[in-house]
Design goal:
The protein is mainly alpha-helical. Helix 8 packs parallel to helix 10 and helix 13 crosses helix 14. The termini are far apart. 39% of the residues are buried.
Length: 256
Amino acid sequence: RVGQPEAARTEAIRYYRDHPTSVAAALMLGEIELGLKNYDKAAEYLQEALKLDPRGARTHYLLGRVRNAEEKAPAAIDHFRKAVTLEEENSNYRFVLADVLISTKDRKLQAEAKTHLDFLIAQSEEKRLELSSDRLAEIYDARGNIYMRKGDLSRAFVDFSRALSLDTEKISNLANYGKSLYRIKKYKEAERYLNEVVRKDPFHSEANLHLGKIALKNKDRAKAEQSFKRAVKLGGKQFPMAYKFLGDLYWEKGLT
C-alpha cells in the first residue's frame, strides 16, 4: 500500500509466511524495512532472498543501500559491484556504485568510479542509453569533482559546464561551476555564479569561502569578513581555511 509502509509490511509478512520460498516476498520485505530504516531486519530478509536467488541484482543493490546507510562502505561497494555485474545495463546501479566509490576519497576507487561515469556518458552520447537531464547532470558533476581532485582543471570545468547546462537550478551545479571558474582565475565570472548560490542558500560554506577569497583579492575586507562569517555560520568544518581567513582579518583589526 503506497504511503502505508506499516500496513504493507503486515501484508508482506503474512504473504511470506505462506510462501517462504518466494524471492519476491523476501525482497519486498527487505525493501520495506529499508524504507523504515530497520536495517538489521532489512538485511535479514535480503540475505534470505539471496539464498533463494544468488544472482538477484536488485537484492544486491538493496543490500548495498542497507550497508551504505550503516556507513559500511566496503560491504556496500561489494554488493553494488555485484549488482552492476549481474545487470550491466542498469544505469542507476552503476551511478550509485560510482557515487559510493567517490565518497571513500580513495584514489584507486575514484579511478574505478570514473570508469563507470565514463561508460554512462559514452552510452548516452552514442544514444545507447536514455538518461534524464537531471541524472546526466549528476554524472557530469560527479566526474567533474574527480577531475578537480586530480588537479585537471580544464576537464573539470568542461564537465561542470555540461552539468550546469543540463540543470541550471541545482545549487551544487552552480557552486561547482563557480568554484571551477575561480580555480581557472576567472574571478569576475566566478563571483556572479557564487552570488547566485548564496542568493539561494545564504550560508553555503564553499560558495561563501570563495566569495570571501575574491573579496580579499579585490581588497574589500569588509565584504570578505561577511562572506567568511557566513561560511562558518553552520559549522563549515570541511572548509577550515574560512576560519583561518576570518582569524587573519580579526588579527588585522586587533580583535584577537
